[in-house]
């Protein structure tokens, strides 16, 4: 069995989307983002949230969860598990590997580690954007789209405006009150 620990705050949606986990694998995504919670629900991933916002809070939660997960596994399960830490955070990878070594389990870090001063670029391809784009399978009014997305108004407005600026959504040519995907209009 493969178990993925995904540090969303560090990698963002661009790295989560192509994750090739099978239905029998476990994927733990650590994020307080509402859009990512919904994305994880649709993808059969486990979204772990509710941790305090601040420096390294998600990292502490990841290591605490990993420790409990390893503690609850039998020796046979430990022998047959592959653990992946999906992050570009050097200290988190070190802590993850240390915990895995305590239980004799291999830790695999599939992402290239970059120096700490590099920043991962975020685009609108976040969970919020994915939610909005997925709702536009047919033309919708702006208010209807906002209500169905279940996002907070400021989050919806910011994300929706960015999608408009990037040319991903636009007004319908048939009815200017409705919004559609730019590729379908």
Secondary structure class reads alpha/beta
Uncertain parts:
113-125
CATH architectural arrangement of the largest domain: 3-Layer(aba) Sandwich
What is the arithmetic mean of pLDDT?
A: 85
Number of continuous helical runs: 9
SSE order: EHHEHEHHEHEHEHHEE
| CATH topology category name of the largest domain | Rossmann fold
Compute the number of structural domains: 2
Q: Considering DSSP H and I runs of 4 or more, what fraction of the residues is helical?
A: 40-55%
How far is the first residue's CA from the last residue's CA? 43 Å
Main sheet: strands, sense, barrel: 5 strands, parallel
Task: Kindly state the number of beta strands.
Answer: 8
Going across the biggest sheet, name each strand in turn.
3-2-1-4-5
Per the principal axes of the C-alpha atoms, what is the gross shape? elongated
Task: Give the strand content.
Answer: 15-25%
Describe this structure in words.
Helix 3 (34-43) crosses helix 7 (127-135), helix 4 runs parallel beside helix 6 and helix 7 (127-135) packs across helix 8. This protein has 2 domains: 2-108, Rossmann fold, CATH 3.40.50; 127-181, Winged helix-like DNA-binding domain superfamily/Winged helix DNA-binding domain (Arc Repressor Mutant, subunit A, Orthogonal Bundle). The radius of gyration is 19 Å and the shape is elongated. It has helices at 8-11, 13-16, 34-43, 57-72, 75-79, 90-102, 127-135, 142-149, 153-165; strands spanning 2-7, 26-30, 46-48, 82-86, 107-108, 140-141, 169-171, 178-181. The chain has a 5-stranded parallel beta sheet with strand order 3-2-1-4-5. The longest helix has 16 residues, at 57-72. A hairpin with a 6-residue loop joins strand 7 (169-171) and strand 8. The protein contains 9 helices and 8 strands. Helix content is 44%, strand content 16%. It is α/β, with parallel strands linked by helices and 185 residues long.
């Amino acid at each position: 069995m493969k178990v993925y620990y995904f540090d969303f705050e560090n990698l963002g949606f661009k790295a989560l989307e192509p994750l090739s986990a099978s239905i029998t694998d476990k994927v733990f995504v650590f994020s307080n983002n509402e859009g990512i919670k919904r994305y994880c629900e649709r993808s059969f991933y486990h979204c772990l949230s509710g941790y305090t916002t601040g420096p390294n809070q998600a990292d502490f939660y990841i290591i605490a969860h990993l420790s409990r997960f390893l503690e609850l596994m039998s020796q046979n399960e430990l022998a047959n598990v592959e653990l992946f830490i999906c992050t570009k955070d050097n200290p988190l990878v070190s802590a993850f590997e240390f915990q895995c070594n305590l239980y004799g389990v291999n830790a695999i870090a599939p992402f290239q580690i970059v120096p700490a001063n590099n920043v991962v670029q975020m685009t609108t391809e976040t969970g919020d954007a994915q939610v909005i784009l997925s709702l536009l399978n047919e033309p919708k009014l702006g208010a209807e789209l906002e209500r169905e997305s279940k996002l907070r108004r400021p989050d919806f407005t910011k994300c929706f405006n960015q999608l408009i600026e990037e040319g991903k959504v636009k007004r319908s040519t048939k009815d200017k009150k409705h919004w559609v995907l730019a590729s379908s209009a």
